[in-house]
Design goal:
It contains 1 helix and 6 strands; from the N terminus they run E-E-E-E-E-E-H. With about 110 residues, it is mainly β. The chain has a 6-stranded antiparallel β-barrel.
Length: about 110
């Protein structure tokens, strides 16, 4: 991030390498950057409005996983690729089973 970046996370996160997944009612390919029990950070080629609710679909070790998210922040990606955005999203109504799946993934 940047030198003036302020860490606001309350939960530990894990960096996730080049995972392809889709988000929103119509599929939008994104690259997952990290995940925690509180939410996800991903890079997308399409901007999304803060407050947008979507369904995030991905695979954890070959097991499909789907969860509702809400876009909390959007900024231009610093990857040097024009038209790419970094999106921070929180989980909406994460149930205990989904929490366990994420916990296992984060702590592996």
């Amino acid at each position: 991030m940047s030198e003036d970046f302020v860490e606001r996370r309350r939960l530990p996160r894990t960096v996730v390498g080049d995972t392809e997944l889709s988000v929103m009612a119509f599929p939008v390919p994104v690259r997952l950057l990290d995940i925690s029990l509180g939410g996800v950070l991903f890079e997308a080629s399409s901007p999304m409005e803060v407050g947008t609710r979507a369904t995030l679909r991905l695979n954890f070790g070959g097991s499909p996983f789907s969860v509702a998210v809400r876009v909390e922040r959007l900024q231009a990606a610093r990857s040097g690729v024009a038209g790419h955005y970094v999106v921070g999203a929180s989980f909406v109504d994460l149930n205990r089973d989904d929490q366990r799946v994420i916990e296992r993934f984060v702590h592996q």
